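Notes from the 1:1 (GR / supervisor)

We went over the backlog. Supervisor wanted to see one worked example end to end before approving the batch request, so GR pasted a single chain during the call. The sequence is below; no edits were made to it. Supervisor asked that the structure be written out right there so they could see what the output format looks like.
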Amino acid sequence: MSSWQTRPKAGFFAACLLVVWSLVSTSPYSSARAHPHSFIDLSSKVIFNDAGQITAVRVNWLFDVFYSTFVIADINQANEVMEEALDQLTKESLIALKDYSYFSEILVDGKRVELADPSDGSMSVTGDQLQMAFTVNLANPVDPVSTTFEYAIYDPTYYIEILHISDEVISLEGEGSEVCSASRQKPNPDAETIGFAASLGQNEIGPDNLGQIFAETVTVTCAS
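Structure output shown during the call:
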């Protein structure tokens, strides 16, 4: 796969959590880890309005213990109030994520739709893990009966792996959602792509389509 080019690490975590990542990259436990370097357990909820149209996807990210430990320790070392620090980190993270469509690809009849600004962003600590939740709002409501509605949540560079832990963590909420269902298609990368991802070092990322290959796709189907 020599046609794939690598470049210095960039993106969401490098942009808004540079201090934390510098600690991670110098850790003796991180040097041997291939892509992905961080893991998020995802749960998601499709939001319907009173007219039965889809208006948003609510996402919840549960970060891995390794990454969470560095974020929490960094806040404690700075003697910051945890709640205030997490509120600020949420704002910074959503600003940084804007350039990456909030790690969200939402498709209607196979075409990517425009997104509005996110809402209801928050971070919290659950046990020893960091959790971030926010709502990805659509610029225009979508009729799920007459169209095919799909979405995928992923880091385009695959520096972070984001996956639903089960079908049960995907839900639908709002008027008309009771006649709809969501199905999850798991990724199926080939051996060459898996090998390429494994070859990338701590300070390298692959092309912007690498994460898409390792992403799940959720399809919402509604009865007429």
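Supervisor's comment: The first helix runs from residue 12 to 16.
Batch request approved.
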